[in-house]
Write a structure and sequence with these properties.
Blueprint: H1 4-9, H2 41-47, H3 68-76, E1 79-81, E2 88-91, H4 101-107, E3 117-120, E4 128-133, E5 139-145, E6 150-156, H5 158-168, H6 172-177, H7 180-194, H8 200-222
Antiparallel strand pairs: 1-2, 2-6, 3-4, 4-5, 5-6
Length: 223
């Protein structure tokens, strides 16, 4: 708890001095005089601004566009940016190509916002699509390629995941699987991004998402 009396003793009064007040002491003390005591630590605590922290950092290009669990997944493997797909990365580890998304999530003990959702089954020569959103934002979207017997896993920031699902036209199965709060947040972001035409959507989606997340976080702390 801040000591108000100690703090007041180290700060200037919030009003101008009266006309008959003695002149203020010079900011630089005369030679030979003792130096003024440092300000009370409570003052520094109130006036200093802590550095901004983001739960997700990744490669440093999309800070804040995801949660702490997405950052943990980022550090658990090697990811390569997908060209022209801001906020989306493909897994570099070939060993994981033989692992389905449910098995991948279980083996890494990922904290999921909802169970893995099948957005599109593999059929008629089309790749299957499975997706999972992680706690705090962002997620994994995986393609099942039956002809090759492999899976292609992509790490997605929150905006990257929303934007890709819009492109595939299969965002609703994921939204339906989320709890009420997560569904509201993700569907709101998706609704906003859907109204931005490409190619502007790809370029602006990360900034839009981070701005929304910061505003919501500030509203929560003020409430």
């Amino acid at each position: 708890m801040v000591d108000a009396s100690a703090l007041a003793a180290t700060t200037a009064p919030p009003y101008p001095p009266p006309p008959d007040a003695p002149p203020a002491a010079p900011s630089t003390p005369p030679a030979g005089s003792p130096l003024p005591a440092p300000a009370h630590p409570a003052y520094a605590a109130l006036t200093s601004t802590p550095p901004l922290r983001f739960s997700f950092v990744g490669d440093g290009r999309y800070c804040g566009d995801g949660g702490a669990e997405l950052e943990r997944l980022w550090r658990a493997s090697e990811w390569k940016p997908l060209k022209g797909c801001d906020g989306r990365f493909t897994c570099r580890e070939r060993a994981l190509a033989a692992v389905s998304l449910p098995r991948l999530a279980a083996s890494l003990a990922l904290r999921l916002a909802a169970p893995v959702v099948c957005c599109r089954p593999a059929a008629n020569g089309c790749d299957g699509v499975q997706v999972v959103r992680l706690r705090g934002g962002g997620g994994v979207l995986s393609y099942e390629k039956p002809s090759r017997g492999v899976y292609v896993h992509t790490l997605n920031t929150e905006s990257g995941l929303s934007r890709k699902l819009i492109g595939l036209g299969c965002e609703q199965p994921l939204i339906a699987a989320l709890n009420e709060e997560a569904a509201m947040l993700f569907s709101t972001l998706t609704h906003v991004l859907r109204r931005i035409p490409e190619p502007e959507r790809t370029r602006t989606a990360p900034a839009v998402c981070v701005a929304m997340r910061v505003l919501l976080a500030r509203s929560a702390t003020r409430g």
